[in-house]
Amino acid sequence: MITPTLALEVSQLEAELCFALADPTRILMLYALDEGSRNVTELALMLGVTQPSASRHLKILRERGLVKAERRGVAVEYSLHDHRIIEALDVLRSVLRDRLVARASLMEEVGVVE
Predict the structure, then answer these.
(1) DSSP letters along the chain, please?
(2) For the segment 54-89, what is each residue's pLDDT rounded down to a tens digit?
(3) 31 burial type by CB count under 10 A (0-12 exposed, 13-18 middle, 19+ buried)
(4) Which end of the chain has fewer CB atoms surrounding its CB within 10 Å, N or C?
């Protein structure tokens, strides 16, 4: 049953999380941060993006509460705010893999793939 509470939560989910997860670079940043805290330069190098680009992505992730920033001397270290986001991403990747397998099987059945 779709209740007003569910509708509100879904609206907040879209506004807070879906936008943050709508870019592959940001998702990869989350996976990188799951391995440990990193600064913007480290993340930029790992992901092959410029430092300004990495900073913009981190700003979005920080504003949405997915990462937290902690000053360490002159550098700022970023880490995951809640590791459950990685579990959620892993579930979504699993669903995607299953869909791709099903699609490939269907293509084989109709003779598109040999």
Answers:
(1) ---HHHHHHHHHHIIIIITTTSSHHHHHHHHHHHT--EEHHHHHHHHT--HHHHHHHHHHHHHTTSEEEEEETTEEEEEES-THHHHHHHHHHHHHHHHHHHHHHHHHHTTS--
(2) 999 999 999 999 999 999 999 999 999 999 999 999
(3) middle
(4) N
